[in-house]
Amino acid sequence: MKYVFVSDIHGSVEGLRKVIDIYKKENVDKLVILGDTASSMNAEDNRELAQMLNGMKNNVEVIRGNCDTISFEEMLDFEMYDMDILYINGKFVTITHGHYYNAYNLPENHGEIFIQGHTHIPMLAKQNGLILANPGSITRPRGTDLRCYILIDESKICLKTLDGKTIKELTF
């Protein structure tokens, strides 16, 4: 199975459209948004984002970020979580936004791969046998001008730019 992970859309309808294009282009099974999907300022954009996500509700998971509002969550036809553990291609993958748990404050029972958002800084590293990843922000990157996503397939995890260029990859 193939999964794509993005984070920190912050209400950008155009950003979500790009993410959905990546989802289709990469032929992924599931899209995971690691929080801060909604805008705290624009209810109209939030409605459009919710409609787009509801249209693919069987193939999307949205983690709750510190900027996501209750009103946005109520527009969704599925539940948001603060953290989840997925089993992807034989690996346990912990996903969260990053404002509670992060690469510097791991939850006690984390998986072999830990993926977070929140910092807006893309990262892929292996540390003490644990893979740490962050797709950064597709709309407001920090520390770089790269807008990235994370892709997991059967044999590797990749950090890629929105145009599909691989920045870094780690094989399993």
Describe the structure in your own words.
- This protein has 172 residues and is an alpha/beta fold.
- It has three helices and eleven strands; from the N terminus they run βαβαβαββββββββ.
- It has helices at residues 13-25, 43-54, 70-75, and strands at 3-6, 30-33, 60-62, 83-88, 91-96, 113-115, 122-127, 130-135, 148-152, 156-161, 166-171.
- The strands form two sheets. The chain has a six-stranded mixed beta sheet, covered by helices on one side. A five-stranded mixed beta sheet has the order 4-5-6-8-7, with no helix packed on it.
- A hairpin with a 3-residue loop joins strand 9 and strand 10 (156-161).
- The longest helix is centred in the first third of the chain and has 13 residues, at 13-25.
- It is globular and about 45 Å long.
- The relative contact order is 0.19.
User: Looking at the structure, what is the overall shape?
Assistant: globular
Number of beta-strand segments:
11
Instruction: Determine the mean pLDDT.
Output: 96
Strand content: 25-35%
Query: In percent, how helical is the residue content?
Result: 10-25%
* Helix/strand/pairing category: alpha/beta
Q: Compute the gyration radius: what is it?
A: 15 Å
The neighbouring-strand order within the major sheet is 3-2-1-9-10-11
Order of helices and strands: EHEHEHEEEEEEEE
Which regions are unreliable across 5 or more consecutive residues at pLDDT < 50? none
Note the total helix count: 3
Give the N-to-C terminal Cα separation: 14 Å
Largest sheet, strands/sense/barrel = 6 strands, mixed
What topology emerges from the helices and strands here?
Blueprint: E1 3-6, H1 13-25, E2 30-33, H2 43-54, E3 60-62, H3 70-75, E4 83-88, E5 91-96, E6 113-115, E7 122-127, E8 130-135, E9 148-152, E10 156-161, E11 166-171
Parallel strand pairs: 1-2, 2-3, 5-6, 6-8
Antiparallel strand pairs: 1-9, 4-5, 7-8, 9-10, 10-11
